[in-house]
Amino acid sequence: xxxxxxxxxxxxxxxxxxxxxxxxxxxxxxxxxxxxxxxxxxxxxxxxxxxxxxxxxxxxxxxxxxxxxxxxxxxxxxxxxxxxxxxxxxxxxxxxxxxxxxxxxxxxxxxxxxxxxxxxxxxxxxxxxxxxxxxxxxxxxxxxxxxxxxxxxxxxxxxxxxxxxxxxxxxxxxxxxxxxxxxxxxxxxxxxxxxxxxxxxxxxxxxxxxxxxxxxxxxxxxxxxxxxxxxxxxxxxxxxxxxxxxxxxxxxxxxxx
Length: 257
Description:
By secondary structure, this protein is an alpha/beta fold. It has one domain (2-247): Rossmann fold. Helix content is 45%, strand content 14%. The protein has helices spanning 21-32, 44-54, 66-80, 104-124, 126-132, 158-178, 199-202, 205-213, 223-234, 252-255; strands at residues 12-15, 36-41, 58-60, 86-89, 139-144, 183-190, 245-248. It has a 7-stranded parallel sheet with strand order 3-2-1-4-5-6-7, sandwiched between helices. Strand 1, helix 1 (21-32) and strand 2 form a beta-alpha-beta unit. The protein is globular.
């Protein structure tokens, strides 16, 4: 039994925002572990390139819109016969601006993607998740939150940090409701990982050094770090966890005063 604890072979998986950054890391890692993965992204060209590189279905879809949600549901029906073992809600955007200049559109765009889109896609895919769930093999939802939803961020990204705190609470709320359906809902809260979202902050040597100095383990996260956490939550090893928010941050949240 122990050797199969982290087995995800053959499991059907959707990774939103799966064409870059953490989403692409997770998609590639689960594919290498034998899962059947479908990725989504707002940008058709990014979908095409990632699908070709990883050899998996890739669907252009903006999950902050009703049409985007429908596109993902249709893809699950077509690619996986309407059965979904694991949904990784990774799609997200951020916005930064000084406090008194922070615009309304910075709230609308971030919340519509990071919170409302996540909720609406999850509810739209519940029939597929319930179809996959059995008593011995629950279906999974893994939401990608952020360490910025656990502590006050360094940057002025007010709507982003608020949205990720909302993702963490939504994870707990959905977990409580869906436990009876055999659908486990957990979240990871990543710290600093190389991605398009963090590229500006990591662009300079001094900037990267400052960020790394603030991390107790003194390094950025790697693909193995985030893939390992998601695979744990998606595999038999995570079958007795639901409503958990797991920091994957090098100790930022756990070691802070």
